[in-house]
Amino acid sequence: MSRAHTALRRAGLGTAVAAAALLTAAGVASAHVTVHPDSYAKGATDGVLSFRVPDESDTTSTTKVQLFLPTDHPLLGVLVSPHDGWTATVTDTKLKTPVKTDDGTITDAVSEITWTGGKIAPGHYEDFDVAFGQLPDDTAELSFKTLQTYSDGKVVRWIEEAAKGDEEPENPAPVLKLTSATNSGTATKSPAATPSTTKASASDSTARGLGAAGLVVGVLGLAAGAFAVVRSRAAK
Q1: What are the two backbone dihedrals, phi and then psi, of residue 188, each rounded to the nearest 5 degrees?
Q2: How far apart are the first and last CA of the chain?
């Protein structure tokens, strides 16, 4: 086999591997259940969290979503936004440690929200919005374990939590980072509570997808250039 053909074969193989890696990374990232925005200031008030649930199946729809809210660091004043086609069932739990606020002591908080009655078709996603009155200020992150049930009865458990420094698990739970308002410059009453932020989150996801696609195109372009150079040398 000539050197030109060997070079072309290596260039093609490298391009395919790079493109596949980029596409796989983009697909894995978009397939997880996620929370948007992914960070808030500690103790933030009057905000909205949007939980994005994608349907990964090629043939079955998502028919039930169960979201579990932490009770060791509870969200106060939780309200569920109406969602077309879906019925939300809210479960309250008595707190082991009541939370003292300016308005009194809170002894109960929402621990679970279950959406049923609707469906997410294969290849689609839904955003489920949850408003809160106040986030806790005594922890660095909140984990929201989620169960996703498909029309064939399959249940995907988004409940795994990665230890610090570990790689992301296969089925990670959505995690909300809580940052210092002083260090981040974020006001206690976060602007993320406005509807525009939900749209911005979707735009960010779209931008990430386009960025990955752009990288793939770039890699293919470099390979095409290498192919042309090697071919011209071979012709000489």
Answers
A1: -60, -40
A2: 17
8-state DSSP, 76: B
Q: Residue 134 and residue 140: Cα distance in Å, rounded?
A: 15
pLDDT along the chain (236 residues), means of 10: 48 43 41 94 97 96 98 97 96 96 93 98 97 96 98 97 80 96 49 39 45 48 48 51
State how far the alpha carbon of 215 is from the alpha carbons of 181, 212, 219, in Å: 35, 5, 6
Phi-psi region of 42 (alpha: psi -120 to 50; beta: other; left: phi over 0): beta
Task: Please tell me the distance from the alpha carbon of residue 161 to that of residue 155, in angstroms, as a whole number.
Answer: 18
Q: How far is CA 211 from CA 39, 134, 154, 178, 204, in A?
A: 22, 35, 33, 27, 10
pLDDT at 164: 73
Joined together, the tokens standing for residue 157 give 């458990």
CB atoms within 10 A of CB 229: 12
Give the three-class secondary structure for 28.
helix
Task: Name the H helices within the chain.
Answer: 3-31, 181-184, 195-235
Q: Classify residue 136 by burial, with Cβ atoms within 10 Å: 0-12, 13-18, 19+.
A: middle
The pTM of this model reads 0.67
